[in-house]
């Protein structure tokens, strides 16, 4: 069964007719040719498909496109402003936080969402005191980013790349 939808992606509206079983990831990649989110496991376990849905990180392989409604989908490409890379893009490059780059767009979207969550005061499983704003220690960043896997094992560089941006934005204390 097909359904007509409007996907708002990176600030642009796209009219599509999709099968109701089409995932957001497949709509982005196959219908809109937006290749930033990657299909890794297609089971929500690797994070390569992570995008922001109204600012919250989601695995786009687990979200049906017909359920997105009027929400804004932001990909790693959409984090750039006026053609200028986002601070996370620059930090990943400056700190060599990728090797093959396959997971990088998902890592960056997850990091952007994670920093926003910490700024909002949301604790994680390793937050020492849940009554206070989270302190984005390396352990805290690793826990919050644990849903994003890197086949090349660039984790030693990913944590400092995320930490630098969080600190620059006044989130890491």
UniProtKB/TrEMBL annotation:
<dbReference type="InterPro" id="IPR012675">
    <property type="entry name" value="Beta-grasp_dom_sf"/>
</dbReference>
<dbReference type="InterPro" id="IPR006058">
    <property type="entry name" value="2Fe2S_fd_BS"/>
</dbReference>
<feature type="domain" description="2Fe-2S ferredoxin-type">
    <location>
        <begin position="3"/>
        <end position="79"/>
    </location>
</feature>
<keyword id="KW-0479">Metal-binding</keyword>
<dbReference type="InterPro" id="IPR036010">
    <property type="entry name" value="2Fe-2S_ferredoxin-like_sf"/>
</dbReference>
<dbReference type="Pfam" id="PF01799">
    <property type="entry name" value="Fer2_2"/>
</dbReference>
<protein>
    <submittedName>
        <fullName>2Fe-2S iron-sulfur cluster-binding protein</fullName>
    </submittedName>
</protein>
<keyword id="KW-0408">Iron</keyword>
<dbReference type="InterPro" id="IPR036884">
    <property type="entry name" value="2Fe-2S-bd_dom_sf"/>
</dbReference>
<dbReference type="InterPro" id="IPR002888">
    <property type="entry name" value="2Fe-2S-bd"/>
</dbReference>
<dbReference type="InterPro" id="IPR001041">
    <property type="entry name" value="2Fe-2S_ferredoxin-type"/>
</dbReference>
<dbReference type="Pfam" id="PF00111">
    <property type="entry name" value="Fer2"/>
</dbReference>
<keyword id="KW-0560">Oxidoreductase</keyword>
<dbReference type="InterPro" id="IPR052914">
    <property type="entry name" value="Aldehyde_Oxdr_Iron-Sulfur"/>
</dbReference>
């Amino acid at each position: 069964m097909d359904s007509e939808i409007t996907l708002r992606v990176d600030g642009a509206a796209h009219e599509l007719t999709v099968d109701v079983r089409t995932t957001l990831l497949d709509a982005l990649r196959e219908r809109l040719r937006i290749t930033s989110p990657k299909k890794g496991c297609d089971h929500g376990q690797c994070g390569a498909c992570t995008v922001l849905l109204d600012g919250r990180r989601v695995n786009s392989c687990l979200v049906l496109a017909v359920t997105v409604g009027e929400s804004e989908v932001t990909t790693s490409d959409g984090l750039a402003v006026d053609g200028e890379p986002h601070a996370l893009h620059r930090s990943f490059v400056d700190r060599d936080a990728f090797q093959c780059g396959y997971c990088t767009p998902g890592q960056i979207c997850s990091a952007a969402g994670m920093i926003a969550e910490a700024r909002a005061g949301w604790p994680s499983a390793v937050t020492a005191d849940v009554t206070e704003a989270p302190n984005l220690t390396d352990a805290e960043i690793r826990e919050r980013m644990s849903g994003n896997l890197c086949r090349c094992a660039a984790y030693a560089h990913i944590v400092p790349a995320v930490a630098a941006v969080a600190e620059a934005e006044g989130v890491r204390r």
